[in-house]
Design a protein that fits this description.
With 439 residues, the chain is mainly α. It has 3 domains: 60 residues, no CATH class; 141 residues, no CATH class; 168 residues. The protein has 13 helices and 2 strands; from the N terminus they run ββααααααααααααα. Strands 1-2 form a two-stranded antiparallel sheet. α4 runs parallel beside α7 and α11 runs antiparallel to α12.
């Protein structure tokens, strides 16, 4: 095994080695051992099946194997479970398990997608293996090797720079994107940059970099190669390494803070306007924390964008609740039988006006509570003048929700009028029938 953690194969007996797995790359099968007891406590070697030590076999393609097991075997089985199959499991536990299981399954698929989309830097020709190893002791390195390495080096630099330029562009997502999509975006970016960073530290990249660095410092006239040109290439590479490191740190930091929102945004997807109102204080407090202490995400542009994405999901939740409130009351779940059009709202047998108006009113109340909690948090920050303030554009945050609520108000007025006429219809008032017919 060399200093880069790569396993080298020779015509010699296979060797057993032990590693903590952080630097040595797995090129085949391996066994893992994981302590499940307090640090410093000795493992009972006499007992082979207790829970003090977990162990098993792992391969270099473990992510692919795990994805196959989870998404192609277990997930279909979980999706097909009926109410009787869950036994005594409570609804809340069932909901929590399926939510986390779905999230884990999607994370695996995204990880594999990221692996397949990562850039792969071309390997340097193996014919230069020995000469590259002796670069520091060689007085006149091969010009052909230097030329090959320089071409490869410039190709790598262009690949990585192009990739970084793509990830650093302003994210032109749909204006209707939601907070989960924001978190997924940064997770994807973190995985992509991690793949690049790992390749930069690999033996392949370090060898080429070391050879060209040594060549740029070689004063031998036998080199026959302009050293300035090589020096510029290595300088550009160092600048790229710094960009990758900074971009990766940013992605990791953003993921860390955005993940703190996960449990508070769950009601935006699984709840209704009433349950969302209950979580607003905790959600706003978590956003305030991100704005106060996050290293990269606390810019006005990103925080305004995050608020707008939360607003988008609130509107989506309100729309779903309006169309499905009867199904929700009856405890009907699943996509089967969901309304595909808002025409169903005019079926007053299935959607009684008095119940529909109540649901519509809850959407308006959610918008009011959202604005009130935002203003409350803003005032609290103003009492701490030295801290960062909520200097965001209210129109960008609440504009779409205000417009949605104005439409909802019109519907409340309309269905209220319909309810009044349906009440009049039940009474035999003189001269009322022509009015009802015209209505």
């Amino acid at each position: 095994m060399n200093d880069s953690g790569d396993i080298q194969y020779f015509n010699s007996p296979k060797e057993f080695f032990v590693s903590n797995g952080e630097k040595i790359k797995l090129n085949g099968k391996g066994c893992y051992f994981l302590r499940n007891i307090e640090p410093g406590k000795k493992v009972n070697e006499a007992n082979q099946s207790d829970n003090s030590m977990f162990f098993g076999q792992i391969s270099e393609h473990s992510v692919y194997s795990l994805n196959t097991i989870i998404n192609q075997i277990f997930k279909p089985l979980v999706d097909q479970l009926g109410d009787d199959d869950w036994g005594k499991c409570e609804d809340e536990q069932k909901k929590e398990f399926t939510s986390y299981f779905e999230k884990f399954a999607n994370e695996l698929k995204e990880a594999l997608k990221s692996l397949s989309q990562n850039i792969n830097l071309e390997e340097y020709p193996t014919q230069w293996e020995q000469e590259a190893k002796n670069i520091h002791t060689s007085k006149a390195p091969s010009n052909e090797m230097i030329n090959d390495f320089e071409k490869l080096f410039n190709k790598w630099s262009e690949q990585i720079a192009e990739n970084l330029d793509g990830t650093e562009k302003v994210d032109k997502k749909d204006d209707k994107s939601d907070p989960r999509q924001e978190l997924d975006h940064w997770k994807q970016k973190m995985r992509q940059l991690t793949g690049i960073s790992e390749q930069l530290r690999s033996k392949n990249c370090r060898t080429v970099y070391n050879v060209l660095t040594a060549a740029s410092q070689n004063t031998s006239e036998a080199m026959g190669k302009p050293r300035d040109k090589i020096y510029l290439a290595t300088s550009r590479w160092r600048a790229i390494e710094l960009r990758v490191t900074e971009a990766l740190n940013e992605a990791k930091d953003n993921v860390k803070y955005l993940q703190t929102l996960e449990k508070f945004i769950e009601p935006l997807y699984d709840g209704n306007p009433e349950t969302i109102k209950e979580t607003l204080p905790a959600l706003m407090n978590s956003i305030k924390m991100i704005h106060t202490i996050a290293r990269y995400y606390n810019t006005n542009e990103r925080m305004t964008g995050l608020f707008a994405k939360i607003t988008n999901q609130m509107i989506t939740n309100c729309k779903f609740t309006i169309l499905n409130f009867r199904r929700i009351k009856l405890g009907v779940t699943g996509k089967k039988g969901q309304p595909t059009s808002d025409d169903v709202l005019w079926d007053h047998e299935l959607y009684p006006c008095e119940e529909l108006i109540e649901v519509l009113q809850s959407c308006i109340e959610l918008n009011q509570a959202y604005l009130k909690q935002y203003e409350f948090t803003k005032e609290r920050l103003m009492n701490m003048p030295k801290g960062k303030q909520f200097d965001f554009s209210p129109n960008q945050i609440f504009g779409r929700f205000d417009l949605f609520c104005r439409r909802v108000s019109k519907l409340i007025e309309l269905f209220g009028t319909i309810q009044q006429f349906r009440t009049l219809e039940k009474h035999n008032l003189e001269g009322i029938q022509p009015i009802l017919d015209n209505f």
